[in-house]
Design brief:
Keywords: Kinase, Transferase
GO molecular function: ATP binding; protein kinase activity
Organism: Roridomyces roridus
Largest sheet: 5 strands, antiparallel
CATH topology of the largest domain: Transferase(Phosphotransferase), domain 1
Order of helices and strands: HHEHHEEHEEHEEEEHEHHE
Number of strands: 11
Helix content: 25-40%
Radius of gyration: 21 Å
Protein name: Kinase-like domain-containing protein
Strand content: 5-15%
CATH superfamily of the largest domain: Transferase(Phosphotransferase) domain 1
CATH class of the largest domain: Mainly Alpha
Pfam families: Pkinase
Number of domains: 2
Length: 302
């Protein structure tokens, strides 16, 4: 018999749930959420810069009426865009295994009092819908953007440093509550263009209660620390510190800045010996001490 840990690992590996979304359309509507239809997509294109509906879209949906569901071709099958009926807020609905680490962690972080903690920078979760017979759950989230720099929004040094601080602070929050994200990367960071940033994709995340072993076997992630290259992760929290350092470097490259004052901290976070990396709490303290020393004129091209 597999252990519970082995079962959860198996479930988390199968993230692409084979889901027939029309089957759940009525339930989601009862909970106040409308899945996107062909009409919604046409309205979206009509509001675009040129107002043109692409030929590929018309060909793909030539046989569909306007009320037919319209999955976003750019999203995996277990994600679907929609709208909150009461106010038109755009949402993304994610189907996950009910017994998965992801659902457990999201549920933990999205319930009071943690939900209301100012250090919690999770993307707002509007509803958690559990289907026990089918052993799946729907996570309904606000729709944010993966385009971290808006076309019409200037990225000043102050905005950039505030964004990086949020990225650090949220890891502090998670680690303080025994949660390791384990897939921190730019591709798993979203923004609402109102100064808020959030990590997504908690498929790899683990929650430790202090009694379970911290090391993880069969480890895989986007940014792989040197100690995890053999598939074993001896310290998930220090793996997050490594990945966060890579995120900071990639963010600097994205905006085209090299900030010398951050280099020393990033080097410490990238120490190949994970035992010698700072904790995330130390990272935040060091960052807060560094920020006042960074004048605009010290920025260099990346």
């Amino acid at each position: 018999m597999p252990t519970r840990s082995e079962l959860w690992q198996s479930l988390d590996e199968d993230t692409d749930i084979q889901l027939h979304w029309p089957k759940h359309r009525s339930l989601l509507k009862l909970r106040g959420f409308l899945l996107d239809t062909v009409r919604d997509a046409k309205d979206f294109y009509a509001c675009s810069a040129d107002g043109h509906i692409p030929d590929f879209f018309l060909q793909r949906h030539a046989a569909d009426d306007d009320d037919a569901l319209c999955p976003d071709a750019g999203l995996p099958d277990h994600l679907f865009r929609g709208t909150r009926a009461c106010d038109g807020l755009k949402v993304v609905i994610k189907a996950v295994h009910l017994q998965s680490h992801e659902f457990s962690v999201i549920q933990f972080l999205s319930m009071p009092p943690l939900r209301d903690d100012p250090m919690n920078h999770c993307i707002p979760v509007l509803d958690l819908i559990q289907l026990h017979e089918e052993k799946i759950a729907f996570i309904v989230m606000e729709q944010w953007s993966s385009q971290l720099i808006g076309d019409d929004i200037p990225c000043t040094l102050g905005h950039f440093l505030a964004a990086i601080r949020q990225c650090i602070e949220h890891v502090v929050f998670m680690h303080s509550h025994g949660v390791a994200h384990l897939d921190i990367s730019l591709r798993n960071l979203l923004t609402d263009y109102e100064g808020h940033y959030a990590y997504i994709d908690f498929e790899m995340s683990r929650r430790f209660d202090g009694s379970s072993p911290v090391s993880i076997s069969n480890f895989r992630t986007t940014e792989i620390p040197p100690e995890c290259e053999n598939g074993e992760c001896p310290d998930p929290f220090k793996a997050d510190v490594w990945a966060l350092a890579v995120l900071i470097l990639r963010a600097c490259k994205l905006v085209g800045w090299c900030i010398p004052q951050l280099n020393h901290l990033v080097r410490l976070m990238l120490n190949p010996e994970h035992e010698n990396r700072p904790s995330i709490h130390q990272v935040l303290r060091s960052f807060d001490a560094i920020v006042p020393t960074i004048p605009d004129q010290d920025l260099r091209p990346f």
